[in-house]
Amino acid sequence: MQQQNNKTSWRPNGLDLRIAVCVLVCCLVSTVLTALDLKFPVGEMRLDVIQKMTACISCLLCCQDGVEDSRKAGGMRVLVTAVGGVCGMAVVAADLALGSNPWLLAPLMAAGLVPTLCLCRLAGALAFNARIGAISYLLVAGTLSGSARLWYALFRLVSTVFGALVVWAVTALARQKR
C-alpha cells in the first residue's frame, strides 16, 4: 500500500509535463493532417497516417526521466510494435487466403499470439513490453476487415515511431533548458 501522506504527490512533475507536451504535439499533428484531409484511401475507408491514439499511447509508454532512457523505451516500443504488426499481418494473410471467415479468424488470432509473445521476448523485450507487442498484434489482426488491416499495421508502426520521435525531441529539448 502506498503512503497517502505525501502532500506533494498531487503536483505535476517534469515528466508529467513532458508527457503532456508530447501528447499535445501528437494530437495537433494528427488534427492538422485530418484537417488537410491527408488520409490514405483503402477502398471506401480513409486511414489516418498518424493515428492520434497510437501516437499518444507511444508518448505515454516512451517518455522517461532522461533522454537515453526515453530512447531505449522508444526503441523497444517500436520493436515490439513491429513484431506484433508482422505477426498480425501473417494472420491477416492467412485469414484472407481462407476467405475471411470470422469463425476461423478467432483460432488464427489465438494461435498467432504465442509466436508474437515469443518473438518479442526473443528480441529482448521484458514480459510487459512483449504484451505491448501482443496488443499491436491483436489490433492489426482484429480491428479492421480485409486487406485494410495491412495498411493499418503500417500506419500503426508509423504512428508509434512518430510518437517516439516526439518524445525524444521534447525530452532532449527539456534537458537543454536545464
Q: So how many helices?
A: 6
Indicate the structural class.
Answer: mainly alpha
First-last Cα distance: 34 Å
Domain module tally: 1
Overall form: globular
Residue windows where pLDDT falls under 50 for at least 5 positions: none
User: How is the biggest beta sheet arranged?
Assistant: 2 strands, antiparallel
Rg, Å, rounded: 18 Å
Proportion of residues in extended strands: under 5%
User: Share of helix among residues?
Assistant: over 70%
Number of strands: 2
Q: Report mean pLDDT, rounded to a whole number.
A: 93
**Element string (H = helix, E = strand):** HEEHHHHH
Summarize the structure.
With 178 residues, the chain is mostly helical. It is built from six helices and two strands, in the order H-E-E-H-H-H-H-H. Helix 2 crosses helix 6.
What does this structure look like?
This protein is mainly alpha-helical and 178 residues long. Helix content is 74%, strand content 4%. It has a two-stranded antiparallel sheet with strand order 1-2. A hairpin with a 2-residue loop joins strand 1 and strand 2. Helix 3 (67-97) runs parallel beside helix 5 (127-142). It starts with 13 loop residues before the first helix and ends with a helix.
